[in-house]
Each structure stands twice: as C-alpha cells, then as structure tokens.
Design a protein that fits this description.
Elements: E1 9-10, E2 13-14, E3 26-30, E4 38-44, E5 47-57, E6 71-78, H1 94-108, E7 120-129, H2 134-148, E8 158-169, E9 172-179, H3 183-188, E10 191-198, E11 203-211, H4 215-245
Parallel strand pairs: 1-8, 6-7
Antiparallel strand pairs: 1-2, 3-4, 4-5, 5-7, 8-9, 8-10, 10-11
The structure holds uridine-5'-diphosphate.
Length: 246
Amino acid sequence: MGDKPETLITDGVRLDGRKPKDMRALKIVAGFLENADGSCYLECGSTKVVAAVYGPRQVHPRHATLFDRALVRCKYDMAAFSTDGNRKRPGPDRRSREISKVSSEALSSVVFTEAYPRTAIDVFIEIIQADASTRVNGLTAASVALADAGIPMRDMLVALSFGKIYGTQDGKPAEVVAVDMDKPEDNWGLADVALAYMPNLERFVLCQMDGRLTHDEFRDGLEMIKKPAQELYKLQKEALRKKYKG
Ligand code: UDP
C-alpha cells in the first residue's frame, strides 16, 4: 500500500470514481464448484471470494457434536496470493481466526440448526483476491452456498460495509459516510463498519467497527446500506435461480 492519499473523496467523488452510496461492481455465481454440496463465487470490485459448504455430515472430532442442533463451522482464509505487496503468509492467523469465529456465529443464527442435530455444516470462505470488505463479502457468498446446498435457513444473509472517509467539499475539509469500503478507504479511512443482516426478517447478526462514528453518522450509514443490501439480495436470488432453472 502506498502513501496516505491527501483525500479519499473530492466533491462527492471517491478515488475510484464512485459516489458515497455506490457499491463496486458485483457478480454472484451459485454452484461454482463441483465437489462441494453448495458453493458460490462472488466479486465485489477486485475483492473475489469462493465459498463452499459441506454437510450436514458427521462431526469430526466427535466430542464437538451438539446433541440438539447442527454445529455450523466457518473457516475464513485469505489465500497467500490474495494480496499485493508484503502479505500474506499461508495459514491461519489471529485475524482469520477472529473472522472465522464471528462468521460461524452469524451463519449459525441464520440456519435452522435444530433440523439437523448431531451433524456438522462446514462452510469454507476463501478470499482469492483481497481489496477490503472481505469478511462481509465472504458472508454474502456463504449464504448463497448454504442455500445452494439446500440447507434450510430463516432468511438469506446479506453483508456489506460502510465507513467514514476524509476529503474535501468545495475546497473545504469534509468527512463523508460511504458504503462498501475498498482497500485505500479501509486502510486510511476514519471508520469502517462490517454488517450482516437478514433482509426479510430485518435482523442484524454481525456488527463490527473500527474507528469512530457519531450516532448520526452511524444512522446515516445504516440508512445508506438499505438500497445496496436489497440489490445484493436480488443478485443472490438471481444467482440461485440461474443455477436451478438454467
Ligand atoms: N489485508 C491484507 N493482509 C492482511 C490482512 C488484511 O492485505 O493480512 C487487507 C485486505 O485487502 C483486506 C483489508 O486489508 O481486505 C482489510 O482488512 P480487514 O481486517 O479490515 O478486513 P476486511 O475489510 O477484509 O473484512
């Protein structure tokens, strides 16, 4: 990553040409892998994700079995070739363990786990190219992969980020709330929030934040993600329909 830019947004236009409310270009493909029970490929700008689901299947190790519900386990990984520059060593680190944990919890709350006691539902999220917002795009892809595997869920999971970036407006310094953080915005921005929520039940299952936002800024961000979240949900459904109806 280069030097800190002087501005991330100038007169309402971000470094990559987006307006504050714009997501990057999105693409979702359901059933991307042959060997998994369910899978998804997702692109959000240059962030590229593959998600794969196996199960419900026998739990290994056996002592991890839950007798009244399925164990939903998510493993998030950033491939060694996923970033430019100085990162990343292969294998788990503190960050990927944390993301795996919060993703497992978010996915557990969306799956009807009680329908499959004593089984495991394993979800793998592989980031093959990272340009920020990988945990949220991973969850959006994982929810398509779960649906593709035919696992009953309360709702889909739509996940996206917003944040606050600095810049100028009419030549004066400005701080602006914007959706879908890319790498420079995540790195240099003033705050970023990762959210996952169920679009029909309108329930949040993940909220993580870096940096500082006022209550009003947080509310503006929540308002701003509503439209792109609906768009993501629509793309999820289209991807699943395409796989099953051709
Ligand atoms: N990143 C990286 N190497 C790392 C961790 C992160 O290059 O070891 C980059 C990557 O582009 C990632 C971004 O920093 O998407 C932001 O990481 P963060 O921990 O905020 O999670 P994310 O926004 O991807 O969910």
